[in-house]
């Protein structure tokens, strides 16, 4: 018997890998549902994901799991809308958004070609995502578009993120097809958990002595893993806040992610999430999901939302606010790859903070940990 502590993506992936190999697995989870942060609440007719997050259907681990076809997956546009002054510019896959490639507001053709060079170039040792992009010549494209977009991806300024780790994630976004299950991100975790033969919820683990005679994979968040394993430090965790506002007035018919190309406030991005899936809001209502990284008042959020969407926001209803202190791990410029998941005999650890700050990183860590145990 192998016990997996934690039913987040890493734990579910580890359990599925062990099951496939013929091992008996028992997953225990402290909360009342699977998924960790990848879950949703249903409040007064609104579906509220705990933190804005698209699922990249092109991630290798998702393809391995063959799960997308079970999710009623709603694909997002492969573009962002960059707000410049009182107008906006769409920037995305040049095969579909041909005109945007020639719009100088988001950067010159030379700078956009430099971004293509970036995708093929090799980061230098100790280099950050920002320094790598600037070095290859992205200039105004980085300042007006890429910096703000990547802040939403990494939940940190690109100057703080390892160029090596960052480039892997950027490339996956370029080649992938992001979107959401129509019923919210919780559906992803639910489908995976239904494949597990033995899973227990509302089971809090305070000591590994409970499983002294069994192999154990600790797949909790970094803080709880440090507690259970007796570790003195944890990787740096990045926080974020997701704001959900509702309105019955027209906002936009676009399901693109909106960012401010002039950096006029604290918002990193905003999206009418109910345009991507109508199941996110009651009929006649629009649900807007917005991300901030620094402590910000709601009045400041409303002010910046008014700039981004070009409409008054004073009468928008605040449906929910999610403060998530440990949204993603920081992979800084001095980060080193983890080579083994084994802590002591029979005890292993898994989590996104050991592979990459992404859903794919969590799933990959779980699978690799299980394979090492096997």
Overall CATH architecture of the largest domain: 3-Layer(bba) Sandwich
* CA(first)-CA(last) distance: 12 Å
Radius of gyration: 21 Å
CATH homologous group name of the largest domain:
FAD/NAD(P)-binding domain
| Proportion of residues in helical segments | 25-40%
Tell me the structural class. alpha/beta
Q: Tally of extended strands?
A: 18
- CATH fold-level name of the largest domain: FAD/NAD(P)-binding domain
- Sequence of strands across the biggest β-sheet: 10-2-1-11-18-17
Q: Which series of helices and strands comes N to C?
A: EHEEEEHEEEHHHHEHEEHEEEHEHEEEH
Summarize the structure.
This protein has about 375 residues and is α/β, with parallel strands linked by helices. It has three domains: about 1-40 and about 185-235 and about 330-374, FAD/NAD(P)-binding domain (3-Layer(bba) Sandwich); about 90-175, no CATH class; about 240-330, Polyamine Oxidase, Chain A, domain 2, CATH 3.90.660.50. The protein has helices spanning about 10-20, 60-65, 110-120, 130-135, 140-155, 165-175, 185-195, 220-230, 275, 300-310, 360-374; strands spanning about 1-5, 25-30, 40-45, 45-50, 55, 75, 80-85, 85-90, 180, 200, 215-220, 235-245, 255-260, 265-270, 285-290, 315-330, 340-345, 345-350.
